[in-house]
Design a protein that fits this description.
Elements lengths: L1 H19 L3 H7 L2 H11 L2 E11 L5 E12 L2 H5 L14 E11 L7 E10 L2 E6 L16 E2 L2 E2 L1 H4 L3 H9 L10 E18 L5 E16 L8 E14 L5 E13 L13 E7 L4 E2 L3 H9 L1 H4 L12 E2 L4 E8 L2 E4 L3 E4 L3 E5 L4 E3 L4 E10 L1 H18 L5 H9 L3 E2 L2 E11 L4 E4 L6 H20 L4 H6 L4
Parallel strand pairs: 4-8, 5-8
Antiparallel strand pairs: 1-2, 2-3, 3-4, 3-5, 6-7, 8-9, 9-10, 10-11, 11-12, 11-13, 12-15, 13-14, 15-16, 16-19, 17-18, 18-20, 19-20, 20-22, 21-22, 22-23
Helix pairs in contact: 1-3, 9-10
Length: 468
């Protein structure tokens, strides 16, 4: 976070320093795309490109606009400080930004007050890999470079490696903000983020991402009174399996107020609550959790249970309001939440979690079939029983075997699931008897009744002594 802040703040304050020294002519000569790239590459471990830079400081609203910004893996051109005009076009960029629009008021800076009217990133594209150990491919880019201008980076020589490492680990705080900030609008629009999960091969693609924070009031010296912001968040999240099939799609909308910093410590709030809306037509399909519940769990397969549509594509029938808490990549559901689809209703209970960094989860949940689907499931079960048992009530056997899985005539499977979504550990939260035991007991009951009819009062007593 600090590195991103430096990327934004350092070039800006270089501009302001020059202006405060009344060096407008020098500013016009020095401040250009090449100068900005040098500033970025001196502070971040990247190669950078800026296609166009427009600066307007002496107007009613000062502005800085950058177009065609790209960040990629650092190479010899960045290490040597090669001018942009002498570099070939960069290939394989990791971060691209169509436009950066910065508008601010210059005079309040004399009172150490930063009034930012707009800081918006348009059409950014970020591609990163989330490693199995919890790291990611972007982290090396935001470290300090080893070589700057063909020489060892003096910033690294100033401090021992241990001290530098401790500073890197130190959490971002409001105290890192150089001055108080009154910001009107900051964020990104029409962003695309590609997250490749190294462990599973899944690709999570976030498109149409708009994250806009406005009405921002932050004063590092008085976080009790000045520590508020309003957030609007829209995103289309698509999960693509390792086999390149669509596994899920979530259309998410959110709006509400947030408190960015802990008023006591000044550090970024460890947990933020969001009110989300998962929109109608979102869907999931081919989830390993449902594949197991559909009939692969031993406890279900042993009783002849089959629910074919559970593993089919399920489309959300209506918008669903969801309250979650986000902290250190962990999403926690704050309420019992029902997701209705054409084939079933999925209930995620309060306290269920999803780890966005590792693609792991811990669900306490249940899935309930529709009335029509329940009838088909139970009819298939009954037909299987009829083939194995004659002369006994099929309904009686069904109630003895599946009674705990039927609620108001509908099939309802309570379950717990944890681990990686691609290979979860799923447990049915209902104890079921063995179908063999139930059938054996049913046969025994039939024989008892028939013997009792032949030898009243004796047949049942004799059969009770048999070893089955």
């Amino acid at each position: 976070m600090k590195k991103i802040l430096y990327f934004v703040v350092i070039p800006l304050f270089v501009i302001l320093a020059l202006v405060s020294a009344s060096a407008w002519y020098a500013l016009k000569v020095v401040l250009n795309e090449n100068f900005l790239v040098q500033q970025i590459e001196s502070n971040l471990n990247v190669r950078a490109e800026v296609r166009k830079l427009n600066v307007s400081l002496f107007s009613a609203m000062s502005s800085v606009e950058l177009e065609g910004v790209s960040l990629g893996a650092r190479d010899s051109f960045a290490n040597q400080g090669t001018p942009l005009s002498e570099r070939p076009p960069m290939k394989g960029s990791v971060v691209t930004i169509g436009k950066i629009d910065l508008k601010f008021s210059l005079l309040p800076l004399l009172r150490r007050k930063f009034e930012l009217n707009r800081f918006m990133l348009s059409s950014p594209v970020v591609s990163m890999t989330l490693f199995a150990n919890g790291g990611n491919s972007l982290k090396p880019l935001f470290q300090k470079p080893l070589i700057v201008g063909r020489k060892p980076n003096p910033a690294l020589a100033e401090k021992p490696a241990e001290t530098a490492a401790k500073e890197e680990e130190k959490p971002f705080s409001a105290k890192d903000l150089p001055i108080s900030a009154d910001l009107r609008e900051i964020g990104l629009k029409d962003a695309t983020v590609n997250l490749l999960m190294q462990k599973t091969g899944q690709l999570i693609r976030i498109s149409g991402l708009a994250l806009v924070i406005d009405s921002i009031d932050i004063d590092p010296a008085d976080l009790v009174k000045h520590n508020n912001a309003h957030l609007d968040f829209d995103a289309n999240v698509n999960v693509i399996s390792a086999k390149q099939t669509d596994a899920a799609s979530f259309l998410i909308r959110s709006s509400g107020n947030v408190t960015p910093f802990d008023s006591k410590t000044g550090e970024v709030s460890t947990g933020v609550e969001y009110a989300l809306v998962v929109k109608k037509d979102s869907f999931i399909t081919g989830m390993a959790i449902f594949d197991q519940l559909a009939g692969e769990l031993p406890v279900l397969s042993q009783v002849g249970f089959s629910w074919k549509k559970l593993s089919e594509k399920a489309v959300l029938l209506r918008d669903v309001n969801v309250r979650v808490r986000y902290s250190h990549a962990l999403v926690t559901f704050l309420d019992d939440t029902v997701f209705p689809t054409a084939n079933y209703d999925l209930l995620l209970k309060k306290g269920s979690t999803i780890n966005c960094a590792t693609n792991e989860h811990n669900f306490n949940a249940s899935v309930r079939a529709t009335e029509a689907e329940s009838k088909e499931i139970l009819a298939r079960f009954d037909r299987g029983i009829e083939k194995k048992l004659k002369g006994q009530s099929v309904e009686d056997v069904r109630n003895r075997v599946l009674g705990k899985l039927i609620q108001n005539g509908q099939v309802d499977l309570p379950f717990a699931s944890l681990g990686n979504f691609a290979n979860p550990s799923v447990k049915l939260l209902a104890e079921l008897p063995s179908l063999t035991e139930v059938l054996t007991g049913s046969v025994k009951d039939i024989l008892k009744n028939k013997l009792d009819q032949k030898i009243p009062g004796v047949g049942k007593e004799l059969l009770n002594k048999l070893p089955f």
